């Protein structure tokens, strides 16, 4: 699941950059939600 963590980290990075530069609007927040979902899937499947 290292790939999912990496993808989640990239999404969070782009969210922070978009938030600081005020670009992207709703798309940036959708990426944050996607990153949270990836993180939760990683945590749930990592415990098995």
UniProtKB/TrEMBL annotation:
The chain crosses the membrane at residues 12-41. The keyword Transmembrane helix applies. Keywords: Membrane, Transmembrane, Transmembrane helix. Pfam families: DUF5670 (PF18919). This is Lmo0937 family membrane protein. It comes from Clostridium frigoris.
């Amino acid at each position: 699941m290292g790939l999912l963590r990496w993808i989640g980290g990239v999404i969070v990075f782009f969210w922070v950059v978009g938030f600081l530069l005020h670009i992207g609007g709703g798309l940036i927040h959708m990426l944050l939600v996607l990153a949270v979902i990836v993180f939760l899937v990683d945590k749930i499947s990592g415990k098995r």
